[in-house]
């Protein structure tokens, strides 16, 4: 076969594949600007950067709050100053009333579908009954203007509309007052992101106060008011501002809070203040309140109170925690523009796990998130152990894992899962101080923009903790079962509508970003581009387009096909290697080619008839005189005509063309099928007859004209013996069984079991000896 025939054959493969899919062709590489992205404007540019007219609102708060430790409730009053930096005139403002979500008639509980009630855990039953009975939600005791005059308003479930006395023009500010009270929920019963924990052994409480005050809803160029009701999953869209918060608690409580303590002389002992100063320059955590001191402190309550005053600048939220049970440790960390005091607050139930790992995990997070995004901008970073499993706020996080106590021995133990679960959740929640507490995405709309991005960075930080750290999310191999599952929705789905929430909003986007970094773009380019995104949108509110555009702008890589497949569809990766064809150049030399043809025929199996006739005494053997020219020559005999034709061909070629006919390379045509629908690069390991190996990376653009089937030509001097697709499991390919040529057997195990005895009867159960304590 001529070289032109080889190339034509490969072209035919492509043409046939295209023809087979022509009617259903979908351009996986069309630009997202056509149908997904908002048009660039003066607020958000086509490069993904904030525009020259970018603006955002500001909300400043002064709050006084008192904790009632006897009745687990708070009473508070606030003065809010709202600045309209938008070009619009606002006639009303929207405020979030997140505690109203726990009311039984709120949209969250009312829209919750009922699952199977045949078997219900005691904890679930307690939650259902408490939801019906608990007096939850805000009692708004005053809503007034700056002069104390009542301000017209309307409560719409979890949202409050304030009708302004005068329209708020661009560049103007308005000040108003909101006073309230509410009963604190028991977090482990009603869930949520804050609440109290009761310790039955010593009769004390631990409070984690989040979503505790009426907060200004976000108003921004891309959405207007983000006043979607709080159903439970979609978290928050908030404005930056400055806070001064006065927290009155029992005098024996220790308070952890967003912000910097303004009155340490009034609420801390001299010993505690000295320890804090020492901690700032220590290379390990310093106990501000020791375990022994905490245990002594929790023995008796008090009717006296103290007021802790905190101030925080340029934050979008505020949270705090309070308990007389707290152990408190701290350690300073300084590098570049970061000067932070890392602090942990935890009851003795958290030890020995917390004193060893909590503050170390905070500092580890800051070290590595700084590398990938920007220097940590706040003066404190806090991890609190309480009833909330994991939640984040500016400068403070709530984290749940603890050791357990053996009921027989009374000893404390923790599992490997608990240890790494604690380290991971602290990395994750402290990481959230970067995303979305600084890079202020709209969580009510796009959960993945904070959870997925943060889970990606969490994975990078975890892998710097120790070799083979057991990360749950980030590795492509860990997302394949989800990618192949049913009942999926695209990542670009509103937070409240997502199915398989953890995989969709955390795992899949984190894995996608990791694949971009490791496989598509490369570490150096992707890290540069991601830092550009983080620094462009620090203390601003990005949308998904801003992230997508920035990564492309700063990396120089067109990734619309990737965003479309991973973020806008539920396709998965399944690239199958269906066939490998080996071709070599037809030299046109009859001496060589007819010998080659004969060799191919001889390699074919003999027919069964020929095999069984092996002992036949053929007629031609009985009468040799019957043999003639055709018995002595076969179809592969070279004739003079063949030689003359070859000589005529050679004389008509130039030297370069003659050399082409002598090319002894192998032309391998590999046929691939995209069974999952998600176009991705084709990554190959090739193994040759001489034992050598080669890695080949074919870009995703190979699928641009035929997204279902494609053939690829590889020219090699050596003989190919094995091909493996995605050998390092980089692409989240859900079915690796079709990734091999030649095909491999899939290994598994047979588990033997012993059949259970099914002869036990009700008669035997009736006569079973009654245990003590059951005779009533």
UniProtKB/TrEMBL annotation:
Keyword Heme appears in the UniProt entry: no
GO cellular component: cytoplasm; extracellular space; membrane
Top-level division of the source organism's lineage: Bacteria
GO biological process, one term: peptide catabolic process
InterPro entries found in the cross-reference section: Peptidase_M1_aminopeptidases (IPR050344), Peptidase_M1_dom (IPR014782), Peptidase_M4/M1_CTD_sf (IPR027268)
Signal peptide extent: 1-24
All residue ranges annotated as the Peptidase M1 membrane alanine aminopeptidase domain in the record: 360-566
GO MF terms, alphabetically ordered: metalloaminopeptidase activity; peptide binding; zinc ion binding
Swiss-Prot/TrEMBL keywords: Signal
Protein known as: M1 family metallopeptidase
């Amino acid at each position: 076969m001529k070289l032109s025939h080889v190339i034509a054959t490969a072209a035919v493969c492509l043409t046939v594949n295209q023809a087979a899919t022509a009617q259903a062709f979908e351009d996986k590489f069309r630009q997202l600007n056509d149908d997904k992205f908002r048009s660039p404007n003066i607020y958000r540019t086509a490069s993904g950067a904030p525009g020259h007219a970018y603006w955002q609102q500001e909300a400043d708060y002064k709050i006084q709050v008192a904790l009632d430790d006897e009745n687990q409730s708070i009473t508070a009053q606030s003065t809010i100053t709202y600045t309209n930096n938008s070009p619009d005139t606002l006639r009303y403002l929207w405020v979030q009333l997140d505690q109203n979500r726990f009311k039984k008639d709120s949209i969250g509980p009312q829209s919750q579908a009922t699952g199977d009630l045949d078997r219900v855990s005691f904890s679930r039953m307690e939650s259902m009954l408490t939801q019906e009975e608990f007096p939850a939600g805000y009692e708004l005791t005053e809503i007034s203007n700056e002069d104390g005059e009542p301000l017209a308003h309307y409560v719409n479930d979890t949202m409050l509309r304030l009708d302004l006395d005068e329209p708020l023009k661009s560049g103007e500010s308005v000040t108003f007052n909101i006073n309230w009270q509410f009963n604190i929920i028991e977090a482990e019963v009603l869930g949520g992101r804050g609440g109290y924990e009761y310790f039955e052994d010593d009769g004390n409480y631990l409070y984690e106060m989040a979503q505790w005050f009426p907060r200004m809803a976000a108003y921004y160029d891309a959405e207007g008011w983000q006043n979607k009701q709080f159903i439970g999953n979609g978290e928050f869209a908030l404005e930056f501002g400055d806070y001064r918060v006065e927290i009155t608690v029992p005098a024996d409580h220790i308070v952890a809070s967003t912000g910097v303590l303004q009155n340490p002389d009034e609420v801390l002992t001299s010993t505690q203040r000295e320890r804090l100063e020492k901690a700032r320059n220590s290379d390990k955590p310093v106990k501000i309140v020791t375990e022994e001191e905490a245990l002594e402190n929790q023995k008796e309550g008090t009717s006296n109170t103290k007021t802790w005053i905190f101030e925080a600048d340029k934050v979008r939220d505020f949270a705090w925690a309070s308990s007389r049970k707290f152990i408190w440790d701290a350690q300073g960390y300084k590098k570049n523009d970061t000067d932070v005091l890392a602090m942990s607050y935890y009851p003795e139930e958290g030890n020995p796990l917390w004193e060893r790992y909590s503050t170390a995990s905070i500092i580890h997070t800051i070290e590595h998130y700084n590398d990938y995004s920007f220097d940590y901008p706040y003066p404190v970073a806090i991890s609190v152990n309480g009833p909330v499993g994991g939640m984040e706020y500016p400068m403070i996080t709530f984290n749940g894992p603890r050791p357990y106590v053996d009921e027989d021995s009374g000893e404390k133990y923790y599992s490997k899962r608990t240890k790494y679960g604690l380290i991971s959740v602290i990395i994750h929640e402290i990481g959230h101080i970067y995303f979305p507490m600084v890079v202020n995405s709209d969580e009510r709309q796009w959960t993945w923009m904070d959870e997925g991005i943060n889970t990606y960075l969490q994975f990078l930080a975890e892998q710097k903790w120790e070799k083979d750290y057991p990360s749950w999310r980030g590795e492509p191999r860990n997302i394949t079962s989800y990618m192949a599952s049913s009942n999926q929705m695209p990542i670009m789905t509103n937070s409240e509508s997502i199915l398989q929430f953890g995989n969709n909003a955390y795992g899949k986007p984190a894995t996608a970003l990791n694949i971009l970094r490791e496989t598509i773009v490369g570490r150096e380019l992707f890290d540069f581009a991601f830092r550009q995104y983080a620094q462009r949108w620090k203390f601003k509110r990005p949308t998904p387009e801003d992230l997508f555009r920035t990564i492309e702008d700063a990396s120089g890589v067109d990734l619309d096909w990737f965003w479309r497949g991973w973020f806008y569809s539920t396709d998965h990766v399944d690239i199958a290697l269906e066939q490998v064809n080996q071709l070599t150049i037809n030299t046109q030399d009859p001496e060589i080619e007819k010998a080659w043809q004969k060799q191919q025929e001889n390699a074919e199996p003999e027919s069964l008839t020929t095999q069984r006739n092996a002992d036949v005494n053929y007629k031609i053997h009985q009468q040799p005189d019957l043999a003639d020219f055709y018995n002595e020559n076969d179809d592969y005999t070279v004739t003079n005509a063949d030689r003359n034709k070859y000589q005529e061909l050679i004389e008509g070629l130039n030297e370069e063309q003659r050399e082409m006919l002598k090319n002894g390379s192998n032309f391998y045509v590999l046929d691939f099928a995209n069974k999952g629908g998600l176009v991705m690069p084709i990554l190959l390991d090739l193994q040759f007859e001489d034992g050598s190996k080669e890695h080949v990376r074919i870009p995703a653009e190979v699928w641009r004209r035929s997204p279902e089937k494609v053939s690829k030509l590889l020219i090699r001097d050596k003989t190919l013996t094995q091909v493996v697709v995605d050998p390092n499991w980089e692409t989240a390919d859900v079915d690796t069984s079709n990734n091999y040529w030649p095909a491999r057997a899939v290994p598994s195990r047979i588990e033997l079991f012993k059949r259970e005895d099914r002869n036990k009867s009700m008669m035997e159960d009736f006569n079973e000896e009654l245990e003590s304590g059951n005779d009533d």
